[in-house]
Every structure is written in structure tokens, then in C-alpha cells.
Design a protein that fits this description.
Length: about 325
């Protein structure tokens, strides 16, 4: 994927990357340039990627990256075109390299570029309330409304016929057409990614965005984190209830309905036409199929195939749940 809102400071020489990781490698004399860091799927020649779990071995076999941060156990799963860089901690090393390419992505301080909408050209094209602020690199389409005390921070694209409620903070986000974002939402901030190292925590850079497709509704008090390496995506015609948390890299398909206080952990993929009851939790790095129904209060800790109804903790087929809880 491309990272439209963060500047890539590459390319860097292979030797520079090796030195930053403090590792030795037989190919250290290689003076090829590395242009970007990407995930296994989107990487191309002269990119560096990372491979930290056997769960992704099928994807790793097909990566087009020239270099890969990985472990001694997993390196044999990589194709011949990809040079394995064996490190002690793949995710920590990935964080370090991402910080080199995208240093501005680490922190999410308040947007100093934001100014009153009255001082921008949007004052003539947007219907807005009081105390609305607009940051740099913002685009707003036709027939849009923005409520009181909302801050559209830097790096936001809003399509046509959108309604943004009051007390929202949005950055690093693309909102397509006819989207409703109700009050008190935070969208596009970095996710909960860090690694404890001795007496401090190493913050993981988040260089992805949030993409909200056409005809969605985002309920009050909802938080949607931007992606770390890929994008966080809300598919077309998907409705989120109030007080929902969507973590980084989550991808939700089309025509899905998610009730209040649901939490979806990072990098999980939710299919099309999915219904999730209130206060359900979905663990990270899972795949929820199409046409799945998840009962309220359930705890999902493993993949769920298409056309399945589950309930309980750990979530199981609803027939089993009802049988076991007579």
C-alpha cells in the first residue's frame, strides 16, 4: 500500500539498515537501496518487509520483497528472491526500521496547523457549527455538515453528502460519500502499539490510514485507530453503534452491523454481512467469514467460517452453546 499522509524518507542503503539493527550478515557488502517498508502482501522489489508468525507463512512464500525481518525458524518459508534478516525480536526491529522511513508517524500530538474554519475557504462551502477547526491537507466535498467543537485535523479527505457530528477529532482518514459520523468520535489516531523495553516503552509507528467507505454510519463515542502498516477499513454500508473500538489494521466488510461496546483487536478481518451483538470482543489477527452472526457478550478467540452463528466464551456454534447452557 502507499502511505498518502506520511513522507517516506527513503531510500536507504542496505548497509544503513543493517547497522541500525546491529546485526551481522554475510551479504553486508550489498549496497542495494531499500525504498520502503511494507507488509508481506504489498511489498515489491527493493522493499523490506517482516514475517513474525507462522500464521502468515502462506503469504510469506509469495512476497515480492527483497528483504525480510524474520526469525531463524521462519526464514525457510521465504522465497529465494527475499533475503532473510534474522533478528531477536521481529516487531521491535520492524518498529525501528519504520521509524527510520517515517519518523513523523510515531507521535500524535495535537495538530498545530488547525485553524478556525472561518479562516478557510470551507466557510463558503460547508454548513458548520461553532468552534470548528480545520488542519492542513484537508479536502471536504459538496453538501457536508460539521457540528460544534469538531476538529478536522491534518490529512483528511471527506467526500460528498457527509455529516460529521459535534466534538469529533479526525485525522489521517479518508471518508467516502454519504457517511455519517455521530458525536464524540476519535478517528485516525495511532493505535495501541508499543513494546516494553527495560524502563520505557517503544512506540510502534502507524503509517496507515482509516478508510470509511460509502454510506456508513459511525456511532457516538466510537474510536477507530489508523493502520500500523496497512489501512483500517470500514466497508460500504456498514453501521457501527455507540462506544465501539476498532483497532489498527482491522478490516470490516460491506453491509455489516456492529452493536454497542464491541471491541475488535488489531489486524482482524471481518467479512461482509456480519452481525455482532453488543459487548462482544474479537481477538487480534482473526478472520471472521461472510454472513457470520456473533451473539452479544461473546468472546471470539479463533477464526469463524462463513455462514456461522456463534455465542459465548469462547465463542462456539450457537447450537452447541444452547445445548451446553440448558
Amino acid at each position: 500500500m502507499s502511505h498518502p499522509f506520511f513522507k517516506n524518507h527513503g531510500p536507504f542503503k542496505f548497509s544503513e539498515i543493517i547497522n541500525s539493527l546491529n546485526i551481522s550478515i554475510d551479504n553486508s557488502s550489498n549496497e542495494n537501496e531499500i525504498y520502503d517498508i511494507k507488509d508481506l502482501v504489498s511489498s515489491t522489489k527493493n522493499d523490506i518487509t517482516f514475517f513474525h508468525s507462522k500464521k502468515y507463512k502462506d503469504v510469506a512464500k509469495k512476497t515480492k520483497a527483497s528483504f525480510c525481518l524474520t526469525t531463524d525458524v521462519l526464514k525457510t518459508e521465504l522465497p529465494d528472491n527475499c533475503l532473510a534478516l534474522v533478528v531477536k525480536n521481529v516487531l521491535v526491529s520492524t518498529s525501528k526500521i519504520t521509524s527510520i522511513f517515517y519518523p513523523e508517524s510515531i507521535n500524535d500530538n495535537f495538530d498545530e496547523t488547525a485553524i478556525s474554519i472561518n479562516d478557510t475557504h470551507f466557510k463558503d462551502t460547508v454548513d458548520f457549527g461553532k468552534n470548528v477547526l480545520i488542519g492542513s491537507n484537508v479536502s471536504i466535498g459538496n453538501n457536508c455538515k460539521i457540528g460544534h467543537n469538531t476538529i478536522i485535523e491534518k490529512n483528511v479527505v471527506i467526500g460528498d453528502d457527509c455529516c460529521i457530528g459535534s466534538n469529533n477529532v479526525i485525522r489521517n482518514t479518508v471518508v467516502k460519500n454519504n457517511v455519517k459520523i455521530l458525536d464524540n468520535c476519535t478517528i485516525g489516531k495511532h493505535g495501541f502499539g508499543f513494546f516494553p523495553i527495560k524502563d520505557k516503552n517503544l512506540r510502534y509507528p502507524h503509517i496507515g490510514i482509516v478508510l470509511i467507505e460509502d454510506n456508513c454510519e459511525i456511532g457516538c463515542g466510537t474510536t477507530i485507530d489508523r493502520g500500523s502498516m496497512s489501512n483500517t477499513i470500514i466497508g460500504k454500508n456498514t453501521y457501527l453503534d455507540n462506544q465501539i473500538h476498532i483497532a489498527h489494521n482491522v478490516k470490516i466488510g460491506e453491509n455489516s452491523i456492529i452493536a454497542g461496546q464491541v471491541g475488535i483487536a488489531g489486524s482482524s478481518i471481518v467479512g461482509n454481512n456480519v452481525k455482532i451483538g453488543g459487548q462482544a470482543g474479537i481477538s487480534g489477527h482473526l478472520k471472521i467469514g461472510n454472513n457470520v452472526e456473533i451473539g452479544g457478550g461473546s468472546g471470539v478467540i479463533r477464526d469463524i467460517p462463513d455462514n456461522t452463528k456463534v455465542m459465548g466464551y469462547p465463542a462456539k456454534n450457537i447450537r452447541e452453546f444452547l445445548r451446553d447452557n440448558k
